[in-house]
What does this fold into?
Amino acid sequence: MKSPIKEFFLKKFFFKIDSEERDAIRRRVMKNDHKVYMVLLPIIIILELVVLLLNIYQYGLSFDRLQNRSMLGVMNAYRGLYLFFIIACIACIFLLWYFQKKKKVFPYFMVASFFLMCLMFWGAGIALCDTVAEGGVYPDYTYLAIGLIGACAFITLEPWVFTSASLLTVVIFDVLLGTVPACANVKMDASFFLTTVVIVGIAFVSGTFNFVRRIDAIRLELKVSNANEILSDKALLDDLTRVFNRRYLTEHIDEPLDYTENGSGVIMLDIDHFKSLNDTYGHQVGDECLSLLGIAINNLIRDKESSCVRYGGEEFLIFFKNITKGDLEIYAETLRRRIEKMKVSISGGVQIQYTISCGLAKAKDGISYNNLINQADEALYKAKEERNRICYYGDISNN
It folds into this structure.
């Protein structure tokens, strides 16, 4: 049995999330954060350009107004860092937009991680320049801290990304401090290393709990979204037959019809002598017949580009997006035969059988959905003259 402390540590810092949930969370994070990136990055670009222009205005293009010529390298480094970050932001804007449009989650987060690294390296570089500008007496952590902690506020990434990026940035910063001649006076004592640990620690803790907070919020959002989808599905399903109800017909069957040979088609069917069936055996038996018919229809059209609607009491509509006349007749005849062989048990061990009739229609000549349904209804009316048969609208309209 795991201890509560270990459970807390695993939950808060290692995030035992299965791959399916992680992918769902990443998709939602991408959707939620994309607008932030598209606003944040242009703002950063504008601010960086303002700083560059002010620097040029103050010192000139070639630093001809610079009093201390030893600062030439520092000023070049400053401008190079700002220019680097502007280019990185422009590249990230384009790549984030592209991968979001293509719904490529993993590449999207790789670009976000790249932006995080650029921000941290920029902060470390500016901090190093400030240290050199001050004569290399002490390290200036201001921009490094801004880069590390600021990234935590804007980028939603797994904590291991934050930790790796912040550690790598600080290590590079410390190595440069120890090797750049202008920083020879920096005393890398216990206080120095403690400061670097504090910066990384703040970045890690800030990033971790920001991540936890966002994950909890997204989990709740996903639960609410899933619950709403379930409620929506239930609202569109007929409880008895488990096919769609009439509301689905009005809300979803509105796509343009395909009038080609392999295009849209409809089957309208109902149970033969259903009123007599109810009157003779009772409504419970009638409901059982409807339920079994719904199961048979769902089994028949499973994984097909089709949908079934309970149109009336015992009437059903099956819509096909891509189907030929021949296949439409095969589906209808297969369903008719399955129902013909089906037996419903009633009290006393007695079993009864029932049949269906089907009217078929294919979309032609630019007709609407309502007209297509009316054609299938006419074909069904013709089939009901003999019962337990199928009838295609085109066959009766040509007679």
Notes: The chain is about 65% helix and 10% strand. The longest strand covers residues 265-271.
